[in-house]
Amino acid sequence: MNPVVHFEMPYDDAVRVSKFYASVFGWKMQPQGQQMGDYVLARTTESDHDGWPKKVGRINGGFFPKKADWPAQVPSLVISVDDIKAHMAKVRAAGGEVLGEPMAIPGVGDYVSFIDPEGNRVSLIQPLPMDKKPMGKKAPARKKRATASKSARRRKPARGSRR
To answer: If we measure between CA atoms, which residue out of 78, 137, 136 comes closest to residue 109?
Structure first.
């Protein structure tokens, strides 16, 4: 089974949409800038350092700028698949229309939208393998100090103690 992992909605004004959802629902809105197509991430639930929801059954989403030449700019769902090309073929075979070719979203995976036979816009995402996703910098591992036995700790006061 392929799960719904994300939602998307269009916007005319990034600041206005961000203020609205942050103030009404407490969502954490994160503009991604021009390098990411002015996309605005919406964290709707507590998430880990990679942005994945910590609680099962919850999803995050995002907002994209409306564009005159884009079809079907309506709220939609994003479904995770393991092979985007195979699922594009399945969409076509089942009577859907794939909208273009997959685009690579840096650090996320490949993405493409489609129209189902009922006219709904939906999207597919083939996430990058976990080992290919950029991770936040981790602090270097600390070496554990060898600990003295209990009797040795009792005999010798710790540095800086006032015994």
So the answer is: 78
Q: Report the distance separating Cα 15 and Cα 137, nearest Å.
A: 30
Nearest 5°: phi and psi at 123?
A: -130, 160
CA angle 15, 7, 124 (to 5 degrees): 125
For the chain, domains (ranges, CATH) are: 4-155 (3.10.180.10)
CA 137 to chain centre: 18
Helix (H, G, I), strand (E, B) or coil at 72: coil
Residues whose CB falls within 8 Å of the CB of residue 4, separated by 6 or more in sequence, listed in order = 59, 77, 78, 79, 80
pTM, rounded to two decimals = 0.67
Residue that is written with structure tokens 């629902």 in the block = 25
Quick: pLDDT tens for 30-42: 899 898 889 998 8
